[in-house]
Write the structure tokens for this entry.
Amino acid sequence: MFGNFDTSEAVIEWESIFTGRSFEELVEADEPVVIADLDDGDGPTVFVASEALRHALAAADGAEPAEAGALWVQELAAEGAEFDLEIATGILGEPARPARGIDGRTTASTAGRPGAPAVELDPAAPRLRP
């Protein structure tokens, strides 16, 4: 959909950009966790974002995905690859939306984090578990 790039490597690079952890550290920690890999890497792949990345995405403001996109495009260029900055920013901005919540509030995954706002749960909202 967005071009040809190694998604598992990209997720590691994104986490490195958003969290400051080194690429090597993330590889040693077996990040990202793959939960679905169709066609042994040649098809769609589903990853679980690490807790550190989920927190970083939840805290990201509108400018951070653009800044991260620019850094990622620079890293790709250093490796001899070209990638559109607008597309990169869009790719990095999409995961931040659910991390922040549909309406922009902080989600339960960020609750208790220093500086994170308290999570407001709607008692009338449907629950997955009683």
Summary: The CA atoms of residues 63 and 78 lie 23 Å apart.
